[in-house]
């Protein structure tokens, strides 16, 4: 997996001149964010992408609350939420393939209209137990605008310096943390002023509007999907290698899955541990320490650009993540667990940013949306496996046993990251020349 943020053979003209190193301190990182996100050709896309991604982090919860509000059982609500997730998993690779082939505009316009229409129909025209509700749940999952894959592939194609691109992916990682915490709060505010169904519909419409906005913004020509034309170009480039056929990418996806499994395991073990110590009401506070530690770690450790090549830095970050995961094993009370999670989660956002940087560096430029989609699916799969295994093991081995298992899986991921760094990177010189 020997690949840095710059693709092999990419000419210097494809990137803007590197900016001076940001000053140390948290203000340095915030200044880098501001300098990147306020650019005239970046700000509209970044802003609309935030709006379009709101449904991603709260729709499953909103569906459960809506079905319950309609009089459905928890089993029916869980089925609809699961079918929605299944639609996402089945549809996202196909949509990403179309995104790479035809560009973002057509895909985002269709998704931006179909997604809120499917969800509004589910809420206002169906009831629990009807045949139409499961069908619409799958359709809504398939139609979810591919904003994550779209925006991350745009970051990989934009004419940025290496440090600027890493700043962009660090922004993506921090944005995920903020949306995971803030989106449910927004849902709660909407439900306070109305019903769960109205809140779900509002969020779906807002997300669709964000996708339409992202479809309409103008970007540099090099940021769009690479579509080679002409017989000489096609002969020179050949058939692009699918992300799942590249050994380096497979290793990276394996590391991402291994890093997500401990998250799923601890999602079940944390409330069980807190409840076992007689203070279940403090579960939310303990969880909050987990997220806050990750955000603070990104702001603290990411305050100045690193000069260490990403192929060297990434395994070290994964090892730091594994060590942080192991701190939970030493916890003796909810307070010590909160401290362990706050300290141990410091590398999480940096690992996520490094993963996105490597996906953008390893993938063929013509298949970036597909590469980022498979990366997201790897993370979702790992988290789901961790939650399922954690649920099965909580009673037999207890929360501390699940924490230990999470530590072991994270160490295995670090071992895979160190082993995979010696794999050669694919030759991306030809795709880079075509795109520029």
Features:
mainly alpha; 436 residues; 17 helices; globular; single chain; disordered C terminus; 73% helix; disordered N terminus; Growth Hormone, Chain: A; 2 domains
Instruction: Indicate the percent of residues in helices.
Output: over 70%
* Termini Cα gap: 24 Å
CATH architecture of the largest domain: Up-down Bundle
Secondary-structure content class? mainly alpha
Poorly predicted ranges:
2-26, 227-236, 426-436
Q: Could you characterize the architecture of this molecule?
A:
This protein is mostly helical and 436 residues long. It has 2 domains: 169 residues, Up-down Bundle (Growth Hormone, Chain: A), CATH 1.20.1250; 178 residues, Growth Hormone, Chain: A. The protein contains 17 helices and no strands. Helix 8 crosses helix 15. The radius of gyration is 22 Å and the shape is globular.
Can you lay out the helices and strands and say which pair or pack?
Layout: H1 26-37, H2 43-52, H3 59-69, H4 74-102, H5 104-125, H6 132-143, H7 147-157, H8 162-192, H9 196-216, H10 231-237, H11 247-276, H12 283-301, H13 310-326, H14 334-344, H15 348-362, H16 368-420, H17 429-435
Helix pairs in contact: 1-8, 2-9, 3-4, 3-9, 4-5, 4-6, 4-16, 5-6, 5-9, 7-15, 7-16, 8-12, 8-15, 11-15, 11-16, 12-14, 13-14, 13-15, 13-16
